[in-house]
UniProtKB/TrEMBL annotation, chain A:
One of its GO terms (molecular function) is ATP binding. PANTHER family: ABC TRANSPORTER DOMAIN-CONTAINING PROTEIN, IMPORT ATP-BINDING PROTEIN. Residues 6-253 form the ABC transporter domain. It comes from Ligilactobacillus hayakitensis DSM 18933 = JCM 14209. This is ABC transporter, ATP-binding protein. Keywords: ATP-binding, Nucleotide-binding. It comes from the Bacteria. Pfam families: ABC_tran. GO terms for cellular component: plasma membrane.
UniProtKB/TrEMBL annotation, chain B:
This is Abc transporter permease protein. Coiled coil: none annotated. It comes from Ligilactobacillus hayakitensis DSM 18933 = JCM 14209. One of its GO terms (molecular function) is transmembrane transporter activity. InterPro entries: ABC_transp_permease. It is found in: Cell membrane.
Length: 254, 298
């Protein structure tokens, strides 16, 4: 039996401990991700979706509980150490790319995700063909802009680049934090289609936060709804396909 | 003529300080106040070593090492101690003042007949002022080459990414704290070296020689940028050195206008303030358009 990609065991997170603002966000949360799971994660604002993602990517350590990656305890590894396994696309297009570096330079940085970086010359020109190919199929003409500074790209182009950077190295786990929310409807749809294609082609395990019920129903093989720090719905496969908007909304009104 | 040669020589030697500052101010994107302590520290260590009979090459290397050390301390205070960078730099700068007094034993120590990097016969045989131009050119050439090769390595790219987008850098597995410490060390190393070279050229080290050095370094960077605009990274390094020389020329002109050397610091500050505001002027008053209009025939 293969080990699950990720296991969260009895995760609790409490913020502002010892002050009047003390608040429990995630409550005894348990979650297991199997290889190939494409999860759409729903929940109202403040339900703990982002906190959950931060606990997974290591930028927040849980107050109690364990995080296992491929069966290995990684609770104490920080976000930098976890980059070897986990890639993330942020909601803000500005977050995922380095603005004063070119598209190709950004891709080169991403191609060495989690690897040791030493005093070896980076050899950018050797990789140009490879990057040209990687960007060729993309919708918004990135392949002609490999030498453009990422800061001069449009929001859609930057987010497509961020997504490409996150998936270039086939991460064990891909985290998408409302990665299409800042884009116009057309661009957003394009990027969602690309996401679906890449995740299934590369057989990636993926957690996607979204506020778009349509996207949550259309994409992925598993849907999780988080409410007040607890998982109130976790359906997979056939049951997920049966899910409809009305049903989801019921969980939101609780 | 010799005034101009000496200005070029000084421009090169101060240009090394500008290159060091460029690594933190432009690449890591924060102002490092340590400079004002590192510069006299490098000078003090170098002069003290020379007066104790240390070989000039070793003494110069020691001034670089001294800078590495101050950079390391500021870096640790900033990344591990979580002290804001501005304050971390000011703390180190303040502390070093006492250390410099300890090293020198008094506020000002002059070099008498000690051998320095400027002593070799072939340099002394050159016309007045050319020794510093020659040495300055050799040093800046080597430093610009090394820094630009470094920035083209995997670790150099990780260093650039850290300053450009820290959150992204971390998500790609780059140890951003280590990059900041590394950058502060190399930056201050170069600044210490610049202090050591200038002390040898001027023939003394003074505990107060650090005051205003950050303005001089920034002036070199900004003047270079205003003069050249968009450039590749290596060309930007060269522009810093050119900016440093241009800045010396500006000071020369100011002196010719009848100001005294006592006014240097005020004028330096005003020049830098104006240069820093040029992007604003360009936008607000559309200077370029106005100038073009002025040239156009009616």
């Amino acid at each position: 039996m293969t080990k699950p990609i990720l296991e969260l065991k009895n995760i609790n997170t409490t913020v502002n401990i010892g002050t009047s603002e003390e608040k429990r966000i995630l409550k005894d949360l348990n979650l297991t991700l199997e290889k190939g799971d494409f999860i759409t994660l729903l929940g109202t604002n403040g339900a703990g979706k982002s906190t959950l993602l931060n606990v997974i990517n290591g930028s927040l350590s849980p107050t109690s509980g364990k995080v296992l990656m491929n069966g290995e305890d990684i609770t104490l590894l920080n976000d930098v150490k976890r980059a070897k396994y986990i890639a993330q696309v942020f909601q803000d297009p500005k977050m995922g790319t380095a603005p004063r570096m070119t598209v190709a330079e950004n891709l080169l940085l991403a191609s060495k995700r989690g690897q040791k970086r030493g005093l070896k010359l980076r050899g950018l020109s050797k990789h140009m063909d490879e990057f040209k190919q990687a960007t060729a199929k993309l919708p918004n003409g990135l392949s002609n802009r490999l030498n453009t500074f990422a800061g001069s790209l449009s929001g859609g182009q930057r987010q497509t680049l961020s997504f490409l950077m996150a998936t270039l190295q086939n991460p064990d786990l891909l985290l998408l934090d409302e990665h299409t929310a800042a884009l116009d409807p057309n661009t957003s749809e394009q990027l969602m289609a690309l996401t679906d294609e890449v995740v299934s082609n590369k057989d990636l395990t993926c957690v996607m936060i979204t506020h778009q019920l349509k996207d949550a129903l259309k994409y992925g093989n598993r849907t999780i709804i988080l409410h007040a720090g607890e998982i109130v719905l976790d359906v997979k496969g056939e049951a997920k396909k049966q899910l409809n908007e009305k049903e989801i909304l019921q969980y939101f009104e609780k | 003529m010799s005034v101009i040669t000496s200005a070029i020589g000084q421009g090169f030697l101060w240009g090394i300080l500008g290159l060091g500052l460029f690594l933190t101010f432009r690449i890591l994107d924060f102002p490092d106040m340590t400079v004002e302590g590192t510069f006299p520290f490098g000078a003090a260590v170098c002069v003290a070593a020379l007066t104790h009979g240390v070989d000039p090459f070793v003494a110069t290397a020691l001034s670089f090492g001294a800078g590495l050390l101050t950079g390391l301390i500021t870096g640790l205070l900033y990344t591990k101690g979580k002290i804001p960078i501005l304050l971390a730099g000011i703390l180190v700068m303040t502390g070093i003042y006492s250390i410099n007094l300890r090293i020198l034993g008094k506020a000002n120590v002059g070099l008498m007949n000690e051998k320095t990097l400027f002593s070799p016969q072939f340099l002394q045989a050159l016309p007045d002022g050319f020794a510093s131009v020659t040495l300055g050119m050799i040093f800046t050439l080597v430093i610009v080459t090394l820094v630009s090769v470094f920035l083209d390595t995997d670790i150099g790219q990780a260093f650039i990414a850290t300053g450009d987008n820290e959150k992204m850098a971390r998500s790609l597995g780059i140890e951003t704290d280590n990059m900041k410490i590394l950058g502060l060390m190399v930056s201050n190393g170069l600044i210490g070296l610049s202090g050591g070279l200038i002390a040898q050229n001027n023939g003394y080290a003074d505990v107060n020689m650090g005051i205003g050095t950050i303005v001089i370094g920034l002036a070199a960077i900004i003047i270079g940028e205003v003069a050249y605009g968009e450039l590749s990274l290596t060309a930007r390094l060269v522009a810093v050195v050119v900016g440093s020389i241009l800045y010396r020329f500006v000071l020369l002109i100011v002196l010719k206008l009848g100001f005294s050397t006592n006014d240097y610091k005020l004028l330096s500050a005003i020049i830098l303030a104006i240069c820093l505001m040029t992007p604003l002027f360009k936008e607000k008053f559309q200077v370029v358009k106005l100038l073009k209009k002025g040239i156009e025939k009616p």
